[in-house]
Amino acid sequence: MVDANNVSTAHPGFHMTESVPSSTQRQLQFENGSAIGTSQRWLGGQYCSVLTSVGIVGCGIYDLKTAEEFGQAIAIAKGTPSNPLVEPEDLFDAKIVGTTAKAAELGISIGDTGRAAIEAMLAASSSARA
Question: Among 57, 71, 126, 128, which residue's Cβ finds the most Cβ atoms within 10 Å?
Answer without folding.
Answer: 57
